[in-house]
Structure formats: C-alpha cells, structure tokens
Amino acid sequence: MADSARSETAISRSISSGLESLGEAAKLREQRLWIPGALPGWNELLDAKGTRFKGTRKTAYNTLKARAQEGIIYMARAQLRPVTRAHFSYEFHERDRRRDPSNIAGGAIKIIEDALQHAGILKNDGWKCVAGFSVSFVVDKESQGVMLKIEECA
Prior knowledge:
CATH superfamily: Holliday junction resolvase RusA
Shape: elongated
Helix content: 40-55%
Structural class: alpha+beta
Oligomer: single chain
Mean pLDDT: 86
CATH architecture: 2-Layer Sandwich
Number of strands: 4
Number of domains: 1
Radius of gyration: 21 Å
C-alpha cells in the first residue's frame, strides 16, 4: 500500500511538472504589446485615400498610415520577437462609444499588421502568417489604445 501511494505521488508530481512546463512553453509563445492612443479608423483611412497632395502621387492615406505606424514599428522592434505564424488578439480601449467597433478594428488592424511587417516581426499579413484574429472592446476613460496579444502557432 505504501509503495502504491508513493507511486501515485510520483505520478502526480510528474503530471504537475509537465503541466507547469506546458504553461511556461505557452508563455514563451505569447507576446503582448500596448499601443497607446487612438489609431485611425476605417472611415478615416477611406476618406484620406482619395485625397492627393498637389503635384505628387502621394495621398493623405499614405501620410496618415505612416504616422500611425511609426510608433508601432519602434515599439515592436524593441519589445517583440519575430513570429512565423500567429493568432492575433486585439483589445481596443476607447474613451467612449462614439466610434463604431467595425470602424475602429478595420483601420487599426491593417495599420498594426503592416507595422509589424515593417518592423520585421511578421513576414507578411497573408494566410500563411496570420492564423486568425479576435477582437474585443473596452470603454476606458483613463487610457485609449490597443492591447495586442500575439500567440505563435506551430
């Protein structure tokens, strides 16, 4: 009986140790990045798309997108490691409910994923590299921004 109890205890410890290792491995495959401030929404990007600067082929869209990506590229290079394929979770923190959720997500996801490409974190934003994404929204009067969670896939 004593040998049986010792054996069960050893098995239990082994299972616990294995589960802890899995938890640690999951943490290694998960990365987070807080992107402060409101990013342009889909409507803002579409409005800017048709506006050209006089005497140039550059549009207001290019400028708006580049300005929004600039900080994200810098933060991503400093805080994230490259991924081959991943699932992205976007948690949008808005000060109020004035902007439509689809407008917020549509513009911001495009800007963020393109910035991750420029930063060298993501090879591209196509099917081979983006396994999927989820979106959620929080009203946060104190801080506006996006909490990005990247979970690397096998």
